[in-house]
Amino acid sequence: MEQADSAGSRELLDCIVIGGGPGGLQACIHLGRYNFRVLLFHTLGGRTLLAKHIENYLGLPVVSGPALLETGLAQAKNFGVAVENVRVERVTGHEGQFEVLASGKTYRSRYVIAASGAKETLAPFKNLHRYFGHSYYTCMICDGYRTTGKKLLVIDRTVNGVRMSIGMKQMYTRDVTFLAHGFTLAPVYRTLLEDEGIGLIEGRPEELLGETKLEGVRMADGRVIPCEVILGWGGITLNDEYLGLLDPERDADGFKIVTNSSGESSIPGLFVLGSLRTGHSQAIISAGQGAEAAIAISTRIVEL
Ligand SMILES: Cc1cc2nc3c(=O)[nH]c(=O)nc-3n(C[C@H](O)[C@H](O)[C@H](O)COP(=O)(O)OP(=O)(O)OC[C@H]3O[C@@H](n4cnc5c(N)ncnc54)[C@H](O)[C@@H]3O)c2cc1C
Fold first, then answer.
1. Is 134 close to ligand 1, i.e. is its CB under 6 Å away?
2. What architecture does CATH give domain 122-232?
3. Which among 266, 268, 267, 261 has a CA at the least distance from the CA of 293?
4. Which of 53, 105, 132, 142 to mutate to test ligand 1, by most ligand atoms within 8 A of the CB atom?
5. Pocket test for ligand 1, best of 40, 47, 62, 87 (most atoms within 8 A of CB)
6. Relative to the CA of 45, which ligand 1 atom is closest?
């Protein structure tokens, strides 16, 4: 790639990839191995970085998120992908001529892959950081297995917690209690939990207890709820501010970006991967989507 000057790069790149999580990195590896001119914008962070032990990634019995990213980044660089460690601020333009603004400079490319993921919203419980990823989990698909046979507390601010509690009981552990955080559960859901043999607690949790391992939760009213593991989904915020001007189509909730099966959004030439787009969010799914988008772009570039 030409050296970027204060105005950015004059060169028209084949693809700019935004976000170095598993989605963006896999796209880079495929595109790099096509000998395309590819630039990856990557800032430290993302959900994969928070994953302490990924056990459901084919070929890697257990890998930490940071180790997966480090290996993937080296692999991408090895195939000639250029990397800028700066945050993308804005994307404008159209297929064949996108303009990407980052750190005050403008870069141009024929295609853009948005793979910047999402930010996890964590509940403001005291000591949460001490147990996060070890006995406090936020993702049932990722870490449900780790609760097998343990005393589990599901914490949620919505009735979705009822569904989660029932699912956890069916798959992982018989000892499940649902803590309805800050709201009163409707009678129909109380009956449902009772029928399923799931305990119910209502109130405001404040602090996670235990010195070396999680022992329980102290509520604002002083009650102590014993548990060994917690599943507490706090939601996510998408890292998509830079797409504001392009405004790709969203799902019915106006939240995640809708794409076709190759990952192309309603904006031709703008591909979207991973947590940003509708569907389940898993490291291996993001990686698969990265490969799919890269292949789709390659067929357009070489007009196959
Ligand atoms: C605690 C935890 C445990 C998990 N465990 C598992 C598991 O066991 N198995 C599994 O499959 N999945 C797991 N996941 C889910 C998995 O991490 C996500 O599905 C995955 O991160 C999605 O990958 P991604 O490529 O979309 O984005 P991310 O991994 O979030 O990467 C996005 C990248 O984009 C960067 N970025 C953001 N904004 C910008 C910008 N404007 N410019 C440039 N760069 C930007 C971020 O800093 C980050 O580096 C876990 C998640 C968490 C939080």
1. no
2. 3-Layer(bba) Sandwich (3.50)
3. 261
4. 142
5. 47
6. 47
Supply the residue whose CA is at minimum distance from atom 8 of ligand 1. Answer: 54
Fold match between 8-119+236-301 and 122-232?
Answer: yes
Residue pLDDT, tens place only, 78-137: 999 999 999 999 999 999 999 999 999 999 999 999 999 999 899 999 999 999 999 999
pLDDT tens-digit map of 159-196: 999 999 999 999 999 999 999 999 999 999 999 999 99
Tokens (6 digits) for 161: 């917690």
289 ligand 1 Cβ < 6 A: no
Closest C-alpha residue for ligand 1 atom 39: 116
* Ligand 1 closest atom vs CA 290: 25
Half-sphere exposure of 171 (CA within 13 A, CB side): 13
CATH of 8-119+236-301 given 1.10.3720.10, 3.20.20.150, 3.30.70.100, 3.50.50.60? 3.50.50.60
Contact partners, residue 57, CB within 8 Å, separation at least 6: 63, 68, 283, 284
Distance separating alpha carbons of residues 125 and 141, to the nearest angstrom? 22
Q: How far is the CA of 12 from the centre of ligand 1 (A)?
A: 28
267's CB contacts (< 8 A; 6+ apart) are 94, 246, 248
**Domain parsing of the chain, residue ranges:** 8-119+236-301, 122-232
